[in-house]
Write a structure and sequence with these properties.
The protein has 366 residues and is α/β, with parallel strands linked by helices. The protein folds into two domains: 123 residues, ATPase, nucleotide binding domain (Nucleotidyltransferase, domain 5, 2-Layer Sandwich); 200 residues, Nucleotidyltransferase, domain 5. Helices cover 42% and strands 13% of the residues. Strand 2, helix 2 and strand 3 form a beta-alpha-beta unit. Helix 6 runs antiparallel to helix 7 and helix 7 packs parallel to helix 8. Bound molecules: 5'-O-[(R)-(carboxyoxy)(hydroxy)phosphoryl]adenosine (KG4) and zinc ion (ZN). 5'-O-[(R)-(carboxyoxy)(hydroxy)phosphoryl]adenosine (KG4) binds next to helix 4 and helix 5.
């Protein structure tokens, strides 16, 4: 534990113990009422276990930090209500956390990347590019117009019935796709790059998923396979999807770098790109993004996979950052509300659109 000890709770889809990530299985979708029930059932034990392991008593805590936005309303409610009870009981200040800000700043727990830096957040719920200018000061350059890349990978994995694949049944969709893609040949399937005519930093993945679904249907017909059976070409499909998702992320990130350079939004010396969120655990994504950053003179920073996917530590760290900066340390949290929908920072995407920067060709695959 750090000097300022904080309790943590999380929004989201499942409770996770500090350091021990509970994987979201391919077979599981998220049913809000079930998520809420699980949150209610486990919150007490999870917090107690964290306290026991830390060897710190609740009275010794400096503050209590809890995610209040964005996320599943029912889960946010459980976390907030429980925290408010603790705050009342132990008379501690409350620090409300924005889930995406927490993802963006996690890296600074391990390596103090200085503000401002560019950040790409890619998870099951989000896809966005922003300039982090301070602990709670973000400029949003672009975000997904439909679904998030992790969601797309999860849905493709489900459509490919990867829960029936002996090597993949305990993996999340994204992990399963990465695992199979390693053995596949992406050139076997041609997928169209999303939004290649749009010279902005927004993302779109729903069309890509549709393309992949069509391919799967066609292959099932050709092979005489039923839904639920594993297609022989599953590795090639995984490789093609992973590459197309990655190339889309890389292209938008490249444009964001050029935009930041043009507008002087990043420092001249040591500009940095931080990548986080569940999809940032993907080695292929990291490798391709490193090609983009190297070509543009940026350093690339990704937290280790266990801190990229949702975890309680990142919430506690964000609490520490806010405590140190004196931001949002609330002594009377009576009126505090959770917010299922909450944008990140100031929307700067219109300026990115107006700049309409063309991205030069870059060979993305070694
Ligand atoms: O950040 P996160 O844990 O939760 C959200 O806030 O959404 O991200 C979970 C997402 C899931 O969609 C999962 O399939 C994806 O991250 N993911 C991956 C990998 N590991 C997890 N995607 C690609 N490659 C991975 N290795
Ligand atoms: Zn997340």
């Amino acid at each position: 534990m750090t000097p300022e000890q904080l309790w943590w709770t999380k929004r989201g889809t499942s409770w996770e113990k500090p350091c021990i990530l509970r994987k979201e299985l391919i077979s599981s979708g998220i049913i809000p009422t079930v998520a809420q029930k699980l949150h209610k059932e486990h919150i007490e034990n999870v917090v107690q276990e964290a306290i026991d392991k830390s060897g710190v008593s609740p009275c010794e805590l400096t503050a209590i930090a809890t995610t209040i936005k964005p996320g599943l309303a029912l889960s946010l409610k459980v976390g907030l209500e429980y925290s408010l009870k603790l705050i009342e009981q132990y008379k501690k200040p409350f620090i409300p956390i924005h889930h995406m800000e927490a993802h963006a700043l996690t890296v600074r727990m391990l390596h103090m990347v200085e503000f401002p830096f560019l950040v790409l957040l890619v998870s099951g719920g989000h896809s966005l590019l922003a300039v982090a200018r301070g602990v709670s000061d973000f400029l949003l350059l672009g975000q997904t117009l439909d679904e998030a890349p992790g969601d797309t990978l999860d849905k493709v994995a489900r459509r490919l019935s990867l829960k029936n694949h002996p090597a993949c049944h305990t993996m999340s969709g994204g992990e399963a796709i990465e695992y199979l893609a390693e053995m596949g040949n992406r050139m076997q399937f041609e997928l169209t790059q999303p939004m290649s005519q749009h010279l902005d930093c927004d993302f779109s993945f729903a069309g890509l998923r549709n393309q992949v679904n069509q391919i799967i249907i066609k292959k099932e017909r050709e092979e005489g396979f039923q839904m639920g059976q594993i297609l022989p070409c599953v590795n090639d499909i995984a490789a093609a999807v992973q590459h197309t998702v990655t190339a889309h992320l890389a292209k938008r990130t490249h444009r964001a770098i050029l935009f930041c350079k043009k507008e002087g939004l990043l420092p001249q010396s040591n500009p940095a790109l931080v990548v986080s969120g569940g999809v940032a655990s993907n080695e292929y994504v990291r490798k391709v993004l490193s090609i983009v950053t190297e070509a543009n003179g940026l350093s690339l920073h990704c937290p280790p996979p266990k801190l990229c996917t949702d975890n309680g530590i990142m919430i506690a760290w964000n609490g520490i950052e806010k405590l140190r900066a004196g931001i949002d340390v609330i002594h009377n949290p009576k009126g505090i509300r959770y917010e299922p929908k909450a944008p990140l920072g100031i929307d700067f995407s219109e300026q990115v659109k107006i700049a309409a920067l063309k991205v030069p060709y870059l060979k993305l695959k070694t």
